[in-house]
Amino acid sequence: MGSIGSSHHDPQLAASASSNEAADMITLDCSKLHGSAAERGEALRQLDHALQTYGFIYLANHGMPAELTNRLHSKRFFALDAATKNLIPRPASDALEDHLGYAEYGVGHISQLVFDEAAVEAHRRASPDHKETLEVGNPADPKNRWLPESVFPGFRAFYTRFWDACNEVEAALRRALCDILAIEPDTLCRMQSQRFGHISFLHYPQMVLQSASATTAAGDSAGGQGPRRLNAHTDYGGLTLVFQDHVGGLEVHDGAVFRPVAPKPGTIVVNVGDMLERQSNGRWKSALHQVVGPREETLGARSDAGKLVFDRYSIAYTGAVDPEVMIETLPGCDVPGTWRPSMADWDQEKPVTSYEWLTKRVAAEYHQG
Question: The whole model's pTM is what?
C-alpha cells in the first residue's frame, strides 16, 4: 500500500495512474459480528483496520438474499426506452430536494471538492461522466418519482424490501463502529433516525476500447474523453454499500495509484463517506475512488476483438446523517486520526449540518452550465 498522507482527498490526485494490481482489501465475515465475544472482537479489529487504510471493505455473509442484490430490476429499468424512463426525470435543478428521479446520460457530473461554478463547468466539459442514473430515497419520501405499476411492475415493492435490508446492514455496521470507539452503541443510529439516505441505480453504457490509453463511450467521436466512466471523488455521506456486477472497473486510491476493487461474488463493498470521516476526526478514511472502463489486459475473451467493453450495472446505497444534525467529532475521537477530513476544507469557521454539506456537494454535481 502507498503512503497515504493527510491530503488523500486532494482533487489533484484524481489524475493519478491506475495499477493492474488489485487493492488488498479485507473481507469481513459479518456473521462474526454476531458470534462469540472473541469472534466479535476480531471482526471489530478487522473493520477498524480496513476503514483506517483503504476506507473500503468487503462484507461476506451479510444476510441479504441474492434476489435483492442481483441487479435484475436495475437492468430492467435501464432497458426501457428513453421516453418511458423520462416519465420520471430528475428536475433540471441543483437543489438537494430535487435529487431524485431519472438522470439521463450526460446529466450528472462528479468532481472532487470543486465548487466554483466556472471550475465545475470546465471540469464537466473536460471530463464528463459516462452513465445514466435512477435516484430513489426513503420509500416513505413523497418526493420519490415512481413509474406506474402498469409500466414497471414489481419495482416499488422490490425497492422497499431492498431499502430495508440495506438499512439493516448499515445499522449493524454503525453499532459496530460505536463498539470500536467504546461509546453508546446507538450513538450513530440516533443520528440517522430519519433514514435520510438514498439509493443510486447506475448504468454505464458500452464503451469502445480503442487502445490501452483511449477508451470512449459508445457513440462518442474518435478520441473520446479517456477511460473514466465516473470521475474520481469521495462519497458525501456516512457509509456507502456498493453492489457491483462482474464487469469491474471500480478503483480506490491507495495514496500513490488507483487500484481495482475486484468484484467478489456474494459480497457487498462498503466504504466511508465524508461525514463519517469528519465525525471520526480522520480516524476512518473517505477514500478517493473512480469507475473506469476495463483495460485491454483485463478483458480477455470478454471483448469483441478487443473493441467492446460491456455495459456495467451497479447499485450504491448511501447512508446519511439526519438533515439538521451538525457533523462534529464523535466521543472517543478527540485525538486526530491519520487523515485530515475532506469536509475540513469547508468547515474551518463552524461545523456544518448534514443538509448544508449535501446541498453543497449535490449543487456541484448537478450544476446547470
Answer: 0.88
**Cβ neighbours of 45 (radius 10 Å):** 11
Give the Cβ contact number of residue 207 at 10 Å: 26
Take residue 179 and report the three cell numbers written for it. 463498539
- DSSP single-letter state for residue 241: E
When the candidates are 2.60.120.330, 2.40.110.10, 3.30.830.10, 3.30.750.200, the CATH number that belongs to 13-52+63-194+222-227+239-366 is: 2.60.120.330
3-class DSSP assignment, residue 49: helix
Domain range list for the chain: 13-52+63-194+222-227+239-366
pLDDT digits (tens, 9 = 90+) for 231-290: 888 898 999 999 999 888 899 998 888 999 999 999 999 999 999 999 999 999 999 999
First to last CA, the chain: 39
Q: Tell me which residue has cell 452503541.
A: 185
Express each pLDDT in 69-96 by its tens digit: 888 899 999 999 999 999 999 887 777 7
Nine cell digits for residue 284:
476512518
